[in-house]
Design brief:
Layout (H helix, E strand, L loop, with lengths): L7 E8 H10 L2 E4 L1 H16 L3 E11 L4 H9 L3 E5 L6 H11 L8 E5 L7 H9 L3 E6 L13 H10 L2 E4 L4 H4 E4 L2
Parallel strand pairs: 1-3, 1-5, 3-4, 5-6, 6-7
Antiparallel strand pairs: 2-8
Helix pairs in contact: 4-5
Length: about 180
């Protein structure tokens, strides 16, 4: 077992609606959330060259009746946070709040699973200034209509800010519990 004091502590924030859209592009109907956390730890460990451990993992979505979906997310190791679907942007506000409250004394890597990078840019920049390594997990693959969920602006932000990018499509087979029909 790795010495935890030498591990990189990671906070994971998943934009639930964005993840759903990203996985749908890759033909995934049901995601293996436990495997998603494993992929994140694996990618960070390789990039940083040190063991990574999850400090916190939050799945934020605007859904009124989560039912079995909530159980699936929680079984995967995430804390499920449901915001009001009747209040536009409530999920983004919650994600921004969690980014702002990420404490660099406890977390050295912040992972955002979302294609909506520009919605969180200011908060992410503040964390980067506090020496928290920022990782964006999304996809550049277009959907069947040619729409790329990670906009050119978001891609430019990732490059300009020197955020690490993880291509979700690279892991679609590992993350799929059930294909999109």
């Amino acid at each position: 077992m790795a010495d935890d004091s030498k591990s990189v502590h990671v906070a994971v924030l998943v934009d639930g609606q964005s993840l759903y859209n990203l996985m749908r592009i890759h033909g995934v109907s049901q995601t293996n959330y436990a495997r998603l956390l494993q992929v994140i730890v694996q990618e960070i460990s390789q990039e940083i060259g040190r063991n990574a451990s999850i400090h916190s993992a939050n799945f934020i979505t605007a859904v009124e009746n989560p039912g079995r979906f909530k159980k699936s997310v929680e079984a995967g190791g995430f804390r499920f946070i449901s915001t009001s679907s009747s209040t536009p942007g409530s999920d983004d506000k919650e994600i921004n709040r969690l980014i702002v409250n990420t404490n660099p004394a406890y977390v050295s890597v912040l992972v955002l699973v979302s294609a909506d990078v520009q919605d969180f840019l200011e908060s992410l920049q503040r964390k980067a200034e506090q020496n928290i390594h920022i990782v964006i997990v999304a996809t550049t693959a277009p959907d069947t209509n040619g729409y790329a969920p990670l906009s050119p602006l978001s891609q430019q932000i990732i490059r300009d800010e020197k955020f690490q990018f993880v291509e979700l499509g690279k892991y679609k087979e590992e993350l799929m519990l059930r294909p999109w029909v």
